[in-house]
User: What shape does this take?
Amino acid sequence: MPKLLIILFISLGINLYAQESFLLTEIDTTQTKKEIRESPFKTGYYPIGFFDVDLRYLIKYNNYEGIRLGFGGITNDRLFENFEIGGYLAGGIKDQEFKYSIGGNYRIHKNGKTWVSIYYNDDIREIGTYAFLTDAHTYSVFEPRLLNITQFYKYQAWHTNVQHEFSSNFFTELQVSLTAVNQIQNYYYRKIYQNYQLTELTASFRFNPKTQYFTYEDGSTESYNIYPKITAQITQGIKGVFKSEFHYTKFGVKVDYLIKKQDLSSTHILLEGDFAFGNIPLTHLFHAYPNSPTKDEILQRFSIAGRRSFETMYFGEFFSDKLATLQVKHSLSRFKISARFRPQLVFITRHAIGNLKDPQDHLGIEFDTLNNIYSESGLELNNLALGFGMSFAYRYGYYHLSNFADNISFKFTFYPKF
Assistant: This one.
């Protein structure tokens, strides 16, 4: 509960601060123009001269580091037009260890859309996370799921990336990475490997739809995406290159579909599939974004619901080398109780199915496999006060637990208006 209070105060401060607008006036030889700059809580960066501070690194919390304080960012074109220097330094109060990153980006041609980067990272990462490279270019000021993660590993990595924007709707990124993995958990792969080296080649693609516009009766206009946003990625682990110890292949594809209706309701569909084969340790397999702390009582599991996570699935409960998930959210139009009090009711259902070849190869961490369909459904009542709301979810079907209370998730939601 103390960590929940900490994050509530942080979130409240962010919510209040973000209501301010930022104005910048430039003097030009031909005209005077006023540019309205977006809130840094929308972009994720706060500019200070030639340096843009990355707000993601200021303060975080997880069960391994406790409160994590840091500072990071990247230079902007006030220093160099085609070259950026970036990184961060962070430390956890609980584990008392520093983590850092340093590197740079170079634009191939002036005003071009191709960047080459090289970075070194020394940090921790959640076991079973398969991050799409192109997702790093989308910003979320607050991801509640990070608060409850318990299973991490340490890594030191060099990675070189090439990013190219073919159009405003199509973006690609290629990466070569050399990673040294050091376990925090008492985990062994095939009784031999605890710490190991990996060399990976990754290609990622993201297609965004054209922006559509909807005009309401009062004349206001809102932009939204009506066609699917598609992200695809393939990763190849290469054995024998720079002491890499495993050979494997991983695929991932994600389809994000939003339907808005004239009655101001909407339906959001997120479908993701991940597939891997070869010799892959648990650290680099897949989980279904669980978000339930491994506690016995409902109130002990009370935290903040995530945006795309399974709220009744316990951390570390399932791992897969083949995984498919479907999440559907149907949002009703807001209740017009007053000018400022307009809560919104959202119905949610989530499902997952997966498999894992040779689970006996993974020793030291207990887990199950998703050979049958995992199901949970529930609702959210959002925007009750200062961006906060309530969430309820219930676990049913094949993985329904014998203790009724263990199937229930009851949490806050947080959707600030930035």
